[in-house]
Specification:
5-stranded antiparallel beta sheet, mainly beta, globular
Length: 203
């Protein structure tokens, strides 16, 4: 069992039998040696984010999660569909549909959260499973995206620090240097949402 001193960002624990991911931990000192922690936790089945305080007497069971690589396939009406890697390679004809269904997993938009803006078809992501059920996913820290909309960069326009806002292929908006144009491929830090570099100049 884990104590409040073991809790850290990203850890997945069971609270009342339900899986929660620790988003933020702050230690509070109450005086006379007493202490507690204030946390922000996310329910991995519903996506709901809560604030909870825990005391030294509280104990936690670390969730026995399994990490697997899966592919994001598509989003439809708020559902995000993923497939186990290799699930569609040479299945037997009579079991093809069954095999694909068995190896596809769906998350609701609330469970995906802000990661939605980095998801594009056929992206490999890391998935966390608990008892065979997909709980949540994480994307690579750095990813490349095609710029689909970009206003012209005017020389000498430094009123906004030499940057402009462009739209990438997922619909997300990114602040980039003025020299970035439509069809360029840019590298983005998915944790901060910031432009890193131009990976490829558009044709």
């Amino acid at each position: 069992m884990l104590t409040i001193n073991d809790l850290k960002n990203g850890l997945i624990v069971l609270v009342n039998g339900e899986p929660y991911q620790i988003l933020d931990v702050k230690h509070l000192h109450m005086g006379r040696g007493g202490s507690s922690i204030q946390t922000r936790i996310r329910h991995l089945k519903t996506g709901q984010v809560l604030q909870r305080n825990f005391k030294p007497a509280d104990a936690f069971e670390e969730a026995d999660v399994e990490k697997r690589k899966v592919l994001f396939l598509y989003a439809h009406r708020g559902d995000f569909v993923f497939s186990e890697k290799g699930a569609q390679k040479n299945p037997a004809p009579e079991s093809e549909a069954r095999a694909q269904d068995a190896r596809r997993f769906t998350l609701k938009g609330e469970q995906v959260g802000e990661i939605e803006k980095w998801l594009k078809p056929n992206t490999e992501v890391e998935a966390l499973f608990l008892n065979g059920i997909l709980l949540t996913i994480s994307v690579p820290i750095k990813m490349d995206f095609k710029v689909i909309e970009a206003p012209p960069g005017l020389r000498g326009n430094t009123a906004e620090g030499g940057t402009k806002i462009v739209a990438i292929e997922t619909g997300a908006k990114i602040s980039v240097p003025l020299f970035i144009n439509e069809d360029d491929i840019i590298r983005v830090n998915t944790q901060s949402g910031e432009y890193v570099e131009r990976a490829e100049k558009g044709k």
